[in-house]
Amino acid sequence: MRSKKPSAAKPPEPLDAYVFLVEESLGRGLAKTLAENGFSVMYQVPWKRGTVLQSAEIPAGLMDPVIFRIAGEMGYILLSKDLVYRYHPLERADIVRNKLAVFQLANGNLPGPAMAQAFVAAKHLIGRQLKRKPRPFVTRINQDGEETVSHSREVLVKGLKENELP
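Structure (tokenized):
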């Protein structure tokens, strides 16, 4: 009987091909921490009527359907702590329509640094899923960066009415 040679751990999938839209509720500090850890991030910025945004800025205070549309059009990966997407049919339909990849924190009540660390710890998981899973999907991660649940398109459209489907 041959002994199996131990395989070296695979390096994480590089994330430099992706831009992550950090939802406003996660905070600017989280976006900064992710950027320092190899994530290319976009963050919603405060905006006042009459001011001009830079082309790479997204104004704060936008409703979820608008955020989803922007993320879909630009190919951004959405990072969130909003768990209600799973329960609201219209938001699920928007995720499907815009072919989003969404990574959510399973516990949105963590302090900012712990939320940032969860995404950093999930870097390998995120890279692997972005490479292998067809969009749309929603994956929840816990504070240790581990997947707790992942919803594919089939799960996201379940229970949607015909007029809600893209």
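Residues 19-45+57-161 form a domain with the Rossmann fold fold (CATH 3.40.50). The chain has one domain: 19-45+57-161.
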